[in-house]
Amino acid sequence: MKSFFGRVFSTIIGNILTISIFVGFLIVLVFVSMLSTPSKNVKNDSILELSFDNAIMESQMDQSVSLFDLSKQSNTYLIDIINSIKNAKTDDNIKGISLKLDGISCGATQAEDLRDALVDFKKSGKFIYSYSNSGTQLSYYISSVADKIYQNPLGGTLLQGLSSNVMFYKNAGDKYGVDFQVIRHGQFKSAVEPFMRTSMSNENRLQLTELLNDLWGNISKSVTTSRKINDEQFNLITDSLYAFIPELGKQNKIYDILAQETDYQKALFQKLGLSKIDKKSDFDILDDHIINIDDYSGTLKKDSQKEKIAILYASGTIVEGDGFDGIQSKTYVKAIRDIAKNDNVKALVLRINSPGGSANASEEILYELQELKKKMPVVVSFGDVAASGGYYIAQASDKIYAQPNTITGSIGVFGMIPNGKKLFNNLGLDFDEVSTNANSDQLKSLTTPLSSTAKNTIYKSIVLTYDKFVNHVATNRKLTYEQVDKIGEGRVWSGKRAKDIGLIDSFGNLNDAINEAAKLAKIEKYSTISYPNRKDSFEEYLEKFQGKSVEASLQKELGTDGMKIYKEIKMINEQKGVQLRLPYDIEIN
Fold first, then answer.
1. Is the pLDDT of residue 3 over 90?
2. SS3 letters across 210-237
């Protein structure tokens, strides 16, 4: 009896301690939120500084959830940054922009949006200066718009062009006894090639070569135009890695001035024509006249009109489920229905940045969007990638916007069921079974080879899904089935080529899509409202703490390279059923 009461007592104490810890966490969370820095005023003769310690996000859906990192994450999203630069163009207090982009983390089209905004800012006659210690190709692409580029003499930028490295798993599968049972439709649907081959197919090599050449062509054209370098010279600079050596970079017009950051600050001080103040250093005076993008965005008045344009942010892999990691079908179906029920919403802008995923989940989301389109205009804006399932869900639209560097298309379907029986046998594990029907063990076991009936059934399902995909595109893009099939078969296109073949309507950013939605809805005064509505951060953190997400912990344990391998394995596990997915994950650095 004594031991029984002892166990009860220890359980009660344990629960009290657990509750106390969570209450403590909640108090810390509230306290941190109360310590938010007040808005900084914009002084006369100010410089707007663009520097980014965190990845540029497009909505709260991109936020990671960690109790202790909440205060570190910026709530200034891409659209806020663009609007801030636009406002600074006509703000008499802002005399110029300073770029410090070494730490920038963003996608190729986000960089393009930023650069376009800076090009437009220069029309005001105001200056743009840039300083770099060790930059990336993407940071230099943006910075190349500057009037003067300052470079640390011991830094450099690795301007080297683009490449794509694809990992193949077939030999590993053969070695360890995993048979990747693959069925696909479309000769360019190369998502499954790593499981079937040990090198790229000719079709995959062709589409990758064209894609990279298109993307690099857009980047290099912008740089050469701004820096007044001819194409031949820029190719020599790139091939010879001249930009990595500051002196060679300066000789070849990549940089204007080699200087320490202190000298850069002195140049800004002089550019503003600031006067010395007794007992105050020039740097302290300059600091009072520099406002960062987060603070400046906080000074701008936010429109709050009754009539709304909804922005539905769809970022990540499309999967079946209810949650906020990626595009989970139930979450997005609910969000679309909430938009439909909101009488103040007059149009929808669907912002897509997705390589695709589950065919079933994609169809669920598309159906709800088609129903919504009966009530209001739907305009689509593509980010870095809108391919396969990401392109599929765009087929309930009045107009599609993309950027030349957007990766899109990939109209194709595949299915894969790994068979690891040999692997398990090699580990000393054997299997035996009984069944009631000929295919009772099919399509659900990781230790059973596909029967001819099962393989034929999956193929029919894939063909039906492909036909539905093509018909959706043909209807929405006003093309024939044959026209879509010709540019389909899983082939990936750059935004530039997508416009030429009719997969998108116009080049433009998110703001362009919002303006078009307002025009179609015939409204002039409006504000925007974002969807999906994410859960309270603390509630979401508790779910993660309880084991519903492990990626944050794995990132710390495995590091960047380890996480890449983990995500590849996770992707294999997620590719159950018929898939509408991009052949590979592409990052432009």
1. no
2. HHHHHHHHHHHHHHHHHHCCCHHHHHHH
